[in-house]
Amino acid sequence: MKSELFRGLQILCWLFFFSVGWCLAQPNRVSKFGEVSADEFVLLASGADSAAAALRIFDVGHCDFNYSQSRGFTYVFRRHVRYKILNKNAYDLANMDIMLYRSSGSSAKEHVLSMNAATYNLENGKIVESKLAKDAKFTEMLDRNYTIKKYALPNVREGSIIEFRYTIESDFIFTLRGWAFQSDIPTLWSEYNVRIPEYFNYKVNVNGYLPVQQPVRKVENVTYVPGVASTAQYVKYTAQDMPALKDEPFVTSLDDYRAKVDFELQGTRFPNQPYENYTGNWAKILNSLMEDKNFGQYIDKKSHSKAILADVQLGDADGLAKIRRIHEYIRNHVKWNDEYSLYTDHLTPKALFEKRSGNSADINLALVGLLKAAGVAVYPVLVSTRENGLHPGYPVITKFNNVVALAVVDSTSLLLDACDQLMPIDMLSFQNLSHQGFLFDTDKVAGQWISLETTVGGESAYHYNLTLDADNTLSGNVIEIHKGYNGLSRRNRYRAKTSEAEYIKDYKEDRAGLDVLGYEIANIDSVDMALTEKLTISIADYVEGAGDLVYFSPLLYERTKENPFKHDERKFPVDFGFSMKETYRITLNFPENYAVEKLPQSIRYKLPDDNGSFGISYLSEGKVLMVASVIELKKNFFSADEYFDLKELFKIITERQAEQIVFKKI
Amino acid sequence: MNKLLFLAVVLANVKITYGNPSSYAVDGISKPLLEGASAVIRVEEQLFDITSAAKARLSYKVAITILNKSGERYTHLVEGYDQFSSISNISASLYDATGKLIRAYKKADIGDRSMISNFSIYEDNRIKYLTFAHASYPYTIEYSYVKDFKGFLTVPSWRPANTFGLAVERSTYTLQCPESYSFKKHTSHGLQVDSSMTGGKKRYKWTCKDLPAIVYEPYSVGIDNLVPWVSASPHDFEYDGTRGSVADWNQLGKWLHTLSEGGTRLGEETKAEVMNLTKGAATDREKIQILYNYLQQQTRYVSVQLGIGGFKPIGADKVAQVKYGDCKALSNFMKALLKEAGISSNLVMIGSGLPSLNASYASFGQANHMILCIPNARDTTFLECTSHHYPTGYIGHSNAGRAVLMVGDGGGTLVGTPTYHAKDNYLERNAQVTFGHDLVADIDINTVYGHAQFESVLDVLLDEPSEQRKYILENLGIAGMELTNYSYLQADKDKPELTEKIKVRSKQLLSKGGDRVFLTANLLNRRESVPATVADRKTHFAVSFAYSDVDEITYALPEGYAVEHLPKDTELESEFGTYTATYTIENQSIVYRRVQQMNSKRYPPEKYQGFVDFFKQVYQADRQKIVLAKVI
């Protein structure tokens, strides 16, 4: 999956590269602060974005380094952005927020060195400038680590041009401020100029579905330390005429498709000192993780793990049973605090078990520690969650924001995630379904990319066994079986209710006419088993009558009424996270004096390469009718081109599942 | 160092006063309290000690047993503070089901962050917070804190069982103040108070015990008729260097008036602009319209709420300079513009989206917004000054039909805003459906939305066409549709009405059944669910807004098909509303006409089954199908 995904991205980039053509360069609209020309007031958005609320005329950034005796190297980020406000929906652009970070353990921080901002209006043919007022600057101390500087521009109206020019100095040179060339409004010109001293080596990640140019790349003489001659690598990244980026359903994170660039420090090379590698390669990343007190050292608290293990009561459980029991023990004893992290909050698993709650790393690394102590071959797997965006694949540590585990037993691999209290083994929470994770062999301090595709998808089966009586009431029973992600979500829905009675109310909520006469649930706590619900039901007012005709749609409440793929355009792949299968079967006994009219046609429809299918079949024998419907999506990731196959599949599903069964009274 | 030591001692003391944590053992909870409960308040003690109008202290402690996952919504300690209040002595612990202490939280576990409303860019509100977490149910959380006030506008209220699913073992509220201090209280019906004099202080104490949880009921207007509660408010208050009285609405209005006094001064430039804009206008109505449009074109909403700035509008001259402000500043600016044009108007304090101000009980906290009123014996106009798009005089559903406080020279007066009735909040739809080759339907839909329904589509009108397209595809709900054409138009900018025109094509309008085809006549306005039946309902219920929908759809019969069955007409009449659905055959067409009108009222619990039955019949009628058979 990984290679396919990246190939897709590359090919798309190349396609754009050749088709758009770079020679059609437009005049560069960048000008100095305050130098607004009359022709900028007549600018309008064009093409697909012709009704956009605003235009980003230009956005120019610089990132340079500074050196001082007291603070060492810092980076200085300068930005000058100019917008044309086209309508009132864009007024919020006139409120600028700048997020600043401050370390809680040291004096390292970020601060705004300068801010200039103004609004320009064309009044009677003259350009009138309104500067940012002193009392329109605010500082919000968000929490211990973050401060937000806020600025509100005056005299903003439709047709106004507004601009902000500001400078931030930052001590946090490990990751430099990145640059997004694309936003939710169209951008005419965007450039980022980065000068990196020869002392630093950064991994640069250029990302997105539209290309970013690098027209300048050269070495310049720049003096950082007085009296020491040095050079800097200057790269200019540019993009022009970037369309607005608009959200689509079923994507990981929209940021995965945004044209942007970011930087992570790989190593330093100071005069008369050896090259110091920070994260330049996987070995280095893994070594530093191994030494980290909130990662490797946490796993390594063997005595803690042994002590906790004594409480798990493994007995003579074998490999798989051991994993099950430890996984369950953690889920039952520790509560996830809803935070994803690659690093633990606590320093030891013991602290976690004392406090009874922690972040994802606390929990999953404790799982690793316990399984190791129990003699299971187990490895942490570094993950970037779906919200966090896909990892670019090469050695950068900051792109990971979570950790899960992989255990090997009898040469079978099992992915493990103990954060959700109802999670079975060999399943990861939805946010972790980002296709690939980096497996970390902590004994060998080595690692490799592995697939995070789980064999389990979301599977549901509905088996109705009903009798239709003379007054058109349906009664009988239904068995629902939910596996994998469907089992997980059904368990969560059940558990979220105060009582079973409340759950049944909720179940009936969108099933008008349904009466539940009996209810049983099995395996609610045996999370590794399929969740099974058995209901005794009666359904009034569902089957309709007209003269001597009686008719109903046999999918009852499980009919797919709407096509989930509603849009007629698709730019990005469809990423479900997991595959799905839905099986529906109804056996219906109908009255003696009813005769089935012509049954709908049974069909079976397949997606190309058998990546998905839909089948529906009808059978009538005596006074019994049987209808079965199966929907299956075998892949969890479809390209933008395949979107239309999916749309067609669901069009057929909605059409065929809507077909009526007609009885005639005899 | 000393300070820290002191704090430690205080914390230790608090612990001691808690006493006996083993009393948190879950098996000590009586059976009736567990029934239908997500959580049980074991003990809650709220003490508000008023020293003077400028000084008070709240001491709060609570222990809650979380019974199951749905009880997790009670695991958040969140208390706000600002420049006039401070929080100290926070203590928090967690106990297991047996009442054994599992974790005592430390100072470092308590978070502190800014808490700015999503409509503001800056406020000085902050919160202290902590979320308790434990892996197995049940467990008990316990926390306490002290909050000191330097001036206060409200007295904390007391609502121990404030939601469905929460049971209460014991809760008390003690309110004490100097003998000379006066305040008022508003309590649930029949609630006993224990009042006494101790050490020169008046003391009121309310207690409740053993309240079982109330099971969730849909459409409920709240459980205030079933549980004990106390609201209280000072008479005289001191706040951010000002003094005022909230003894009644008139007094509160006086204070607000003082704050805005002098704020309508305008610079010469703006005055000239007003003159210039209104010079051709013959009537006040025209002037109001011109100036309101000017406000909408020239200003934008930027909210900054700091101390008294939460009540005192920024001066009109300042707004004229920067062209932005919050609801107060923009209303006051509009007032200044009108004044310049010789029209007098009043600021209005309103609970937008909240109930009417309580005529017999004046207090802060019932309102959250400010609009403007231009009184006139025959034709009083209200203006919502933060909207860029409302027609003049249209104030929106959330401001309509409620008692509000009009502020004037003589203080405050309660007045009513206009009510938008069912006939105002209309949807009028006309659709033509024709079937072509292969039973593909061409559907031409024309819908007019008024007032509250206009508001619900207004954002779509203002959006980009590409987003409008997405909206239609996601919301129209015609199976298998292809959108061929669409437009949104507000023909008259001074009327809260807009027109939507949509053309779609679909192959899935008719569902097959053997040799017949079935047509659900109600194409676009089906009721898909019925409110759940509630046995022995206890709370009142309401429909949140009145509306009237008229859908008329004309289906030209597909060639080669004849009507085999036409559903029966439906006519329903109830105090909740009326509904009719009729089917007529005209020439080669079937005309389906559906009219639904709903009232917005509050109904007593015993009427609920009638409400369910009404919607059940609507649901039934909406899904009726026309059967068409092939002509042989």
Q: Helicity of chain B, in percent?
A: 10-25%
Which pair of protein chains has the largest interface, and what are the residue counts?
A-B, 78 and 76 residues
How far apart lie the N and C ends of chain A? 58 Å
| Major β-sheet profile of chain B | 8 strands, mixed
Radius of gyration of chain B (CA) equals 30 Å
Percent of residues in helices of chain A: 10-25%
Mean pLDDT of chain A: 92
Number of helices of chain A: 10
| Tertiary shape of chain B | globular
Give average pLDDT of chain B, whole number: 93
Strand content of chain A: 35-45%
- Helical/strand content category of chain B: alpha+beta
Oligomer: heterodimer
Question: In terms of per-residue confidence, which ranges of chain A show pLDDT below 50 for 5 or more consecutive residues?
Answer: 1-27
Taking the sheet with the most strands of chain A, its summary is:
8 strands, mixed
Strand order of the largest sheet of chain B: 5-4-9-2-1-11-14-13
Number of strands of chain A: 36
The separation of the N and C termini of chain B measures 99 Å
Low-confidence stretches of chain B: 1-19
Give the strand content of chain B: 35-45%
What strand order characterises the main sheet of chain A?
5-4-8-2-1-10-13-12
